[in-house]
Input
Amino acid sequence: MIYEEFKTILNSSFLNIADGNGVVWASKQMKDPLEERVAGFDFIHRLFELGKDNDIKFYFLGAKPGIAEKAKENLENTHEYIKIVGAHDGYFSADDENQIIEEINSKNPDVLLVALGSPKQEKFIYKYKDKLNCKIAIGVGGCFDVISGTVKRAPKIFIKLKLEWLYRGLTDLKRIKRVVDFIIEQANEVQDPQFRKYKKFSINSKLFLFLTSLLHSLLHPVSCIIIATAT
Ligand code: UDP
Output
């Protein structure tokens, strides 16, 4: 079951960031409150800034051909100190993976940013964490699309109103399919006793599941996972 696998991956990481107001909300319901949402996009920009006073080498893996290179180029224009040692697109076959790992290792990056979408990027990092030489690997979703200028981030007002998910849903309709897939899977597979207590909120549990699934999927719970690969 995908959630068990994803749970194992999240639990094995050094740090998970809640890039979704849905997770922040859920953490409050579960009486283990997270302070706030931390957008992966903002997080990696803080990392880029850290490169100013520290010698940090980045490698970009993911997104459509040309996008990671364009993101690299844009960042090199805006952050003259940044060191991006390589970039590779995210459309490769399983047979190419070893060669890609070798290429990444040959460039000796400290930080590997992986933009393959979730949960593909987390699975990829988990699968290769012992083969990678980098110190940390981070799943960054659609960040290269935004940095390259291919996709616009939601206007600030949407972010402030916690409606970034709505903007993304409206501007990228294929996300609707993701919602539908998630709802179907959720309805079939959620048996976790932890969720049962939430039935009390619902008029009928199927409606509640539908709404929470919709919210969960759109808010995109954890888009940033950091796995420390260094021993
Ligand atoms: N992507 C990729 N390889 C794949 C599937 C997706 O490189 O096989 C890229 C896609 O081009 C996009 C990113 O992964 O740049 C996923 O973006 P999205 O906004 O969907 O990320 P998420 O919401 O899953 O974090």
Observations:
- DSSP finds twelve helices and six strands in the chain.
- Residues 174-189 form the longest helix (16 residues).
- The CA atoms of residues 50 and 56 lie 8 Å apart.
